[in-house]
Amino acid sequence: MRINLKPIFFLFLFGTSLNATAQRTMEKLPASRGTNMNQSDVQNSENNDESQSSSSAEEIIVASRIRTLKIDDFLGERTAVEPDTLPLNFQNITFAERNKTLSSENLGNLGSPFLTKIFSDRTGKIPFLFMRPYENWIKAPNEQLFYNTTTPYTYINYLTTFGDETSQEEDFKVFFTVNANKYLNVGFDYEIIYARGYYNKNSTRDKLANFFGNYQSPRYEAFWKLSNFNLENFENGGITDDRYITKPLLMSGGLQEYESLSIPVALEDAKSLVKSRNFFFNHKYHIGFERTTINKDTINAKTAKNDTITEFVPVTSIIHTLYIDQSRKSYRSTSANLAYYDSIAHIDDSYTADTCSMFQIRNTLGLSLREGFHQWAKFGLTAFLEHDFRRYTSYSPTSALRDTANTFSRLSTYDKNLVWAGGELSKRQGSVLTYDALAKICVFGEDIGDFELKGNLNTTFKLWSHPVSLSASGYFKNLHPDYFLEHYYSNHFSWDNHFIRENRTRISGMLNIPALGFIANAGVENLTNMVYFNNDALPDQYSGNIQVLYFNWKQHLGAGIINWDNDAVYQLSSNQTILPLPDLTVYSNLYLKFLISKVMTSQIGIDCQYHSAYYAPAYMPATGQFYTQQETKVGNYPLMNVYGNFHLKRMRFFVMYAHISRLFAEPNYFSAPHYPINPSIIKFGLSWNFYD
């Protein structure tokens, strides 16, 4: 069943516009009192917290103010962030990287399996191994934005490609959040990605829903997130011969180039489905005292009224974090495709119906001595215990058939119970020097002795009256590999490994000079006993050391309306056979930025993404994992786009001719081995905000 998102988008847009018209029209406030919200005016500053009122007795004006933050998914520490409201480079949301990383391996479509080519961006944020290739499309708890707003806030995004509906990409997202009172906020976002595919049997259909909220009072605060992710993609195994792209006239006998949908693919009847439902809840109860101070800004010589401020000062916090996750992957095919899988069929040689799942419940209980409750309390100190239960379900050749008519019914389960203990030392107040350091060790369970240490250090100072930020971070991890890397059984793959602990050490630093538009980030990581997928697409462990050195440079240059943004990463892997990485990856964006009729911000430009050639990991449909190979190089190709990006009050929109370099560059445009980049296409995107 095909879904056409255009009617859904325009009906929603029309209904929301009627609702906004029926609401009280928001008036523009004087600059000294506040700002009427539009796409570029979202304020996170503490200076906008005061209530707004008009100079007229007949009229009350309420300014929209939106404050956003993220919390870590462990102890719930808060970090203020800005929402995505910038008017520039909105067009990049239509690419798989979505401004999160410079370059990636993917299968061509939005919503398809994904692996960033920048090593420092590989987060491993998802506990379920077979969900990790899709982590770019979903939000982990520590990536969720939590809101506090004076008026309801809604936005809708719609992205599409022009052309044949048999290959069209569409992405529709709706977001809404509202405060019930000054403490309680609730909201949701829902996204549908439907990419039919510019290559045969390559479509994706993803449905991503998040329900979230927070309650923040002086004594009690809570943050929660309930998510449901459903990611479905057809698996075509890549094109059968790269020469359909690199030498199309040779393959057609000199007659014509092939249309992308006419190029033969390896698989015709395979499909993967990954589902995840998870719930995150972090809450704290603060024990402290009330402190009265003089408000020096409102001292009145005639009366003491309103000249003092009474505030609650937390001394100790009781912390609890609950995380529940149920994730499942299936891979199905109406035939076993024995030719593609080297005649291997462990369960049934006529069809495939692989499945596996993981269920996790994690409870963390902490006790914290808060920073700043007294002049000598210069830092915070937290101690915690964590219980982590995991149940793995997969096929087993030794289990009894649950259904005698179904050869794919030999399911078995394996449980893990782990207890961790640890602590955190932190200083997050002030700007001269802030830091945090967290350590934890497994004290009970089969992974006893595993430990993790990580920390961050930040300072801000002025250099010739310009602010400069300097930061450093690092971690040391000694952990057992994932259960599914050691034990797995399916129709085409089976392994039973006994790996030792992986050891990872990273140190990095960053220098940020906003006045110069300059950011530099450098780091080094050492990996010992690294587990990876080898040339046979099987998990393997390399017993030696691998070092990765990387340097990232970002630079903005501008003169008048001419702007030039550059983002370059140099990375060097000491073992390209086990851990292949492109040496150089560059994104360059040259554009004109100007106003039309003094109200519409316009960005007209051309950008280019490039990385050096290397033996990029190949993709295995049956497991959804990327594995090493030394047969085909990917890269040394400029991916160029011409675009116009516009911002008018509450609306952003763009028009782009994507992959214009296809018209003149040597045809060698692959994202991963045997998976070409989409051909030249026209893309369009729209984002509309409502603040009432």
Key descriptive features of the protein:
22-stranded antiparallel β-barrel; three-stranded antiparallel sheet; globular; Maltoporin, Chain A; mainly beta; 4 helices; 692 residues; single chain
3D architecture notes:
- The chain has 692 residues and is mostly beta strands.
- It has one domain (5-690): Maltoporin, Chain A (Beta Barrel), CATH 2.40.170.20.
- It contains four helices and 33 strands.
- It has helices spanning 5-22, 243-246, 248-251, 483-486, and strands at 66-71, 78-81, 104-106, 114-116, 146-149, 153-161, 169-179, 184-195, 204-216, 220-235, 270-294, 308-333, 352-369, 380-395, 411-427, 434-444, 451-463, 466-479, 487-489, 494-496, 502-513, 518-533, 539-559, 562-573, 584-596, 600-611, 618-620, 625-627, 639-648, 651-658, 670-672, 675-676, 681-690.
- The chain has a 22-stranded antiparallel barrel.
- A hairpin with a 6-residue loop joins strand 15 (411-427) and strand 16.
- The longest helix is centred in the first third of the chain and has 18 residues, at 5-22.
- The two termini are 36 Å apart.
- Residues 7-60 have low confidence and may be disordered.
Q: Helical element count?
A: 4
Helix percent band: under 10%
| CATH fold-level name | Maltoporin, Chain A
What's the rounded overall pLDDT mean? Answer: 89
CATH uppermost class = Mainly Beta
**Structural category:** mainly beta
Rough shape?
A: globular
How many domain modules?
1
Major sheet details? 22 strands, antiparallel, barrel
Question: How much of the polypeptide forms β-strand, as a percent range?
Answer: over 45%
**Low-confidence parts lasting 5 or more residues at pLDDT below 50?**
7-60
The rounded Rg comes to 27 Å
User: What's the architecture, going by CATH?
Assistant: Beta Barrel
Number of strands: 33
CATH homology-level superfamily: TonB-dependent receptor, beta-barrel domain
Determine the N-to-C terminus distance: 36 Å
